[in-house]
Every structure is written in structure tokens, then in C-alpha cells.
Design brief:
The structure is a homodimer of 365-residue chains. By secondary structure, the first copy, chain A, is of the alpha/beta class. Chain A has helices at residues 6-10, 33-40, 70-77, 93-98, 124-133, 183-188, 221-224, 243-258, 277-300, 310-325, 331-349, 354-359; strands spanning 20-26, 44-49, 64-68, 103-107, 111-112, 168-177, 201-203, 216-220, 261-271. In chain A, strands 1, 2, 3, 4, 5, 6, 7, 8 and 9 form a nine-stranded mixed beta sheet that branches. In chain A, helix 10 runs antiparallel to helix 11 (331-349). Chains A, B: Its EC number is 5.4.99.30.
Chain lengths: 365, 365
């Protein structure tokens, strides 16, 4: 509304301003946004309110947002709302589904602006956008890390034919202060803080799985969105705190299959508060055992050549989950069905366009 | 010779003092050692003099060393000396062969002590030793990098069964100032300097190849020594500057097969001088084409289960090189034969002991 000043002319517009949504799952007032205001205010927020839908969530003035509570989710998805977790931050994936943008950044409400070693506030979103807009290099490791970073390049011995890289689908950011540890490690090392600022972004090589944390994560919704399902956690489920892990395993095998890249490293956020390790242990308990079988399963997943879209890959993956993991626990049978429901809901909310049908003609590698 | 002072009691002995040799290939006087004196003086040096054997190489006083020139190599290996490159720093691998120690650190004579961001001189050797003495984690990626580093650990979602890790065979260090670029990149970016200090060590995942640089490299000779052959380069050969790359591809597929780890990252050295890009282009020329076929070859190499020792793996690899790469150029036929000669020479100089026969009963993965 203010008159345009000379300064405004000089300032470049925020990158991807109209192409990116910020998704925040929450149960509380969002004062944490105050600290992010300089970086987030130009963007649209999608707030997914978890728990009691009658509670009012306060959002600081000046932010542009849509807020969805459980009633909204049910209204929009009908019986398919069953695939969206309740009383667990896994509900955030509903925000991915209803977004109309190409890119998503998702962040937890206990994450604040971190500082780099020079003391400068880190614009996490800007770094994620950089990561997403430049290629990944999953087929060969570059020892100087991201070859597209300023002052870096491919080193001697890096095959020239691989230097184009592949499109980046996911950018996984890290956390200073409270590290993302499991309950047993939290119990054993209650005072450990992450103080190591590692100035690097790197592509996770093809064929390698990683523990994807949903606290500080960005992705290209058009490239990988339908696989970013955070599973069934929380209320009525036997497990919690594996929502992002599940999504991470799924997206990685699908990115590997479709020739897309996954990056990890910068940006850091400041993770303020350790969650209660006893509560966490209760949530994680079964997962600690199950992951020993789930990970070999994902390490050996092979998707057929005719899976040329994310949706097709995901439906195929759901079949393999049902077939191979149901014997671990009946939960995986339910999860496999929810994976199908998720895709049905995704397609209902996001009817195919010419762009997405173009994608489904992509080449599988 | 000096009387033991109180201070000496307080100082811990240099790590692995009697178990590590420092291998330096050179054609010039070794003044560069002055800067390394505080870190290297306690260790034994193996200097491999390249080029004219009548030239005298000056080594600063106080260092304990053996120096081998071309005449020494011929005397020791006889006709098998043909597998050791001449007029190329690839000759350094002769030093690996004649060492009697468990660990090797090799460094180029244009590499100096770098400083960390706090301005402290980096003891590169000490960091390599740390890397080698703690396990690697090649089967799953840890997003906080080396889980064994101070203040770090495995993150949430890292399978507990994989947290033992595997023995580390190789530690690949990096370079500040002059980055290790190929000739085309040197020509295009003559002024680029590496100023990014990335405070991380990481395991290169199983199944992923990397460009291994021989400038600043350490390894466990008992675990992987016989595969650290730097090939046929320099005088009389159609190629140069691929010695360390060749070794890197070979050791990686063998480490993957035997369940051993390869790390990259810290420590940094200060690489002082860019080599001439025109000379380099002449040396690299064929390699730029060949690597496009060599890398897919190594990516698809499969070693049979009965290859349970490094030597057996290496002989098997030589057969596959002969079979699959000779069609790229007759050079690979010669190289495959040299690989066999190298193993013969290695076994002659290092007759099997109970320790190494124990190794050959190890389990292949």
C-alpha cells in the first residue's frame, strides 16, 4: 500500500514469491513467526492446526495465510481424511496437498532464525530456494561438496557427462542447538547441543537412504509432492516420530528411480527446545525395532520401468509395503492402504493438468 | 638425546608414532618439511625420488627417512619395477609397498600447513589418524556427518544395528587455496581459490564412487594397501594425472565389497601452487574421454564372493579391466598386466604373515 520508494526499486523481489508456500503444523499461537518476519512475510503460509479444532490459533499481524483445522480437513477430504494423521505433526502433509504452488517449505514452530559463524542471521528459506533451483549430482560424489556453490566446482576426475546434474526435488536443512536425536540418544546425552556449523550442501548419492527430518525441509511439489506423505502417526496409531522418516525413505527411492536429486546440509535453523525423551521413547518404541526391517526393505525396493510418474511409483510402493512389511506388523497393511488413499485424495484436490501429464511421460532411470 | 623434562612427561606421545609412515614423492629439495616439522618430525618418512636418480634431494635435518630413487626401485623389484611409474608422482605407491607400517599418510611437496577458521594451524596428520581409528558408516547417511566426531552422534531414524559402523580403510583430506581442478576447469577459472572450510568428515556411501586425490591422503595399509596402486602414468604412457583417480576407483569398489569404509573431508592442507593447465591438459587429454567409459565400468563391477582378500579382489579386478576396458584403448591391456605385476611385487616385498592370512579369511559382503 505504501508508495514505492527508490529503495524498493533497488531491492530484488523475494525469490519465488508467488511460487512457494510455507507449511506450518501447530497446536499453539505462532509468535515464533515474529523472528521470521523479514524472511517469511512476503510468502503465503499454510497453517495446519493439529488437535482440538475449536481452539483459536493466533497468527501475528501482517502474514498472509490459510489455516486448516481438523474440521476443514474432514470437509475437504471426506472419508479420505483418514489418511491424515491427528495429534501428530504428520498432519502437515495436508498442507502440501492443498497448496497450489510449485514449491513447499515446511518448518516447525519451535525453530528460530540461526546465525552463521560471522553472526549474520540465516535466511533459511533463501538457501533452500538456492538448493532447489540448482541441480543435484547423485551419480558421483564431488569432494568439494556442492559444485554449484559460489567458489566451488567439480573437481579433477569428475566425469564431464555428469556435470549437468539432475533436477533437485528435495532440500533437507539442518539444526543448530538441539540436534534431532532419537529418544535413547536424548536420554543418554541430555546436554548435547549441535554447535558445528558445516558450510556445505551436498547431494545424497543415488542408492543411499538418509533420515529425513521434517523440521526444516523444502521440496519441489511438482516433482515429488505426491510422495511427501507423512504416514499414519499419533492418535490411534501404534507409532509416532517416524512420519518424516517414512516420507524420507519413500521420496528417496522414488527420486532415485526417476532421476531426481535430494540435497542435505545448509540451511541451519535454531532448534529451541528438546522434546520430552520419555514421551518420545513411548512414540518411537515400535519404530526402533521396525526400522531394522523397514530400511533393508527400502534398500532393496525396485520400481518397474513403467512407473514414470510419482503417483505411479507411490502406488507401486504401497503394494510392495503391503506385500513385504505387513508381516512385520498389521500396521503396515493399514499404512499401505492409507498410501493409496493419500494418492486418491491428492488427485482429487490436484486434478491432472497438462503440466502433470507431461511429467508422467518423463523417463525412468 | 635431550634430557627428559617435566614438559615431556605432560605431552602425550604422537599418535601411531611407530605404526605410520609418511610417503612423499618428489623431484626437489624438501624445504616444505620445515613447516610440517612440529607434526611430522616424530614419524618415519619414505621419500620416493622421481626422475633423474643422480640428482641429490636435500632433506632438512632432524627428519628420520629412507629415500628411494629409480635405481633403488629397479634393484628391489627387478623386472617388476616396470609397474612403478617414472616421471610422475604415481611413483609414490612404491613407498606404500616398501613400508613396514600399518598406516600410510601421503602428501605432495607443494602442500603446506593450513589454518582453521580460528587461525590455528591444522595438524593434518592427527585428523587423518582420528578418521582412520574410528569407524565408517557406509550403509546409511548420517545428516550430522561423522557421528563419531565430538559433539555429534547418529540422528533420529538411524538404524541402531548399523551404528557399530565398519573399519575405516581410507581417509581423504581436502585442500584450501588451489583446488584440485582438471585442466579445462583450470583454464576456465584460473583465479578460483578454495576458501570454504567445511568442518565435516563423512563416509562416502557404499556404491558411490568419488574422485580420490593423492595430495593429502591416508590409509590403513593392512586393510587396503595392495589396492593402492597408482597405475602406469608419466614416462612412456599415454596419460597422466589419473594415478590417484585410478587408485580411488579401485579401492572404492574393493572397500565396498569387503565392507570397509572410505572417509572424505577434514583435514585441509594449504595447496600452494597451481600446476600448468596446458601441461595438465596434455596429460589429461585421453583421460577426459576414457573416464566416461571407465566410471560406468567401475560402477558396474561386481566381485565374486570368494574374493575375500584385497589381493584376490585386485587380481579379479585386473581381469575385468583387461576384459572390459581393453576395447577402449590397448593401454588398459598394459595396465591390467601391470596390476598383476604390482600384486606380485607387493607379495614379494610383503610375504604373507599370520596377520595377512587372517585377513584373507575375512568375510566379503
Amino acid at each position: 500500500m505504501a508508495a514505492t520508494t527508490k529503495l524498493d526499486y533497488a531491492k530484488p523481489p523475494p525469490p519465488l514469491k508467488d511460487e512457494l508456500d510455507i507449511v506450518i503444523p501447530t497446536i499453539r499461537n505462532l509468535e515464533f513467526l515474529e523472528m521470521w518476519r523479514p524472511f517469511f512475510e512476503p510468502y503465503h503460509l499454510i497453517i495446519v492446526q493439529d488437535g482440538d479444532p475449536t481452539k483459536t490459533i493466533k497468527v501475528p499481524d501482517g502474514f498472509d495465510y490459510d489455516l486448516y483445522n481438523r474440521n476443514d480437513i474432514k470437509k475437504l477430504l471426506g472419508p479420505r481424511a483418514s489418511c491424515i494423521s491427528f495429534k501428530d505433526s504428520a498432519c502437515r502433509c495436508f498442507g502440501y496437498m492443498v497448496s497450489k504452488k510449485k514449491y513447499i517449505f515446511t518448518i516447525d514452530d519451535d525453530c528460530f532464525v540461526a546465525k552463521d559463524p560471522s553472526g549474520k542471521a540465516i535466511n533459511a528459506l533463501e538457501q533452500h530456494i538456492k538448493n532447489l533451483l540448482c541441480p543435484s549430482t547423485p551419480f558421483f560424489f564431488n569432494t568439494l561438496y556442492d559444485p554449484f556453490a559460489d567458489g566451488a566446482d567439480f573437481v579433477r576426475g569428475y566425469p564431464f557427462s555428469l556435470r549437468d546434474g539432475v533436477p533437485t526435488a528435495v532440500s533437507h536443512g539442518l539444526w543448530l542447538n538441539i540436534p534431532d536425536y532419537d529418544a535413547p540418544t536424548q536420554l543418554v546425552k541430555p546436554l548435547e547441543r549441535n554447535q558445528r556449523y558445516v558450510d556445505a550442501v551436498l547431494t545424497i548419492p543415488k542408492g543411499t537412504l538418509f533420515p529425513m527430518c521434517g523440521m526444516n525441509l523444502a521440496f519441489d511439489r511438482e516433482l515429488i509432492g505426491p510422495a511427501m506423505y507423512f504416514g499414519l502417526m499419533g492418535d490411534g496409531q501404534p507409532i509416532g516420530r517416524y512420519d518424516d522418516m517414512w516420507a524420507g525413505w519413500c521420496i528417496k527411492v522414488i527420486c532415485d528411480h526417476l532421476g531426481l536429486g535430494v540435497k542435505t546440509g545448509l540451511p541451519y535453523i535454531w532448534h529451541s527446545k528438546a522434546s520430552n525423551p520419555f514421551v518420545n521413547l513411548r512414540k518411537e518404541y515400535k519404530g526402533i525395532f521396525w526400522q531394522e526391517e523397514i530400511i533393508p526393505f527400502f534398500q532393496s525396493v525396485s520400481l518397474p520401468k513403467d512407473c514414470t510418474s510419482v503417483q505411479k511409483c507411490y502406488i507401486e510402493l504401497s503394494k510392495q509395503v503391503k506385500e513385504k512389511l505387513s508381516k512385520v506388523d498389521p500396521y503396515f497393511d493399514k499404512l499401505a492402504s492409507a498410501m493409496v488413499t493419500w494418492i486418491e485424495a491428492w488427485e482429487e484436490i490436484n486434478p491432472p493438468t497438462s503440466a502433470s501429464s507431461k511429467l508422467s511421460n518423463g523417463t525412468a532411470k
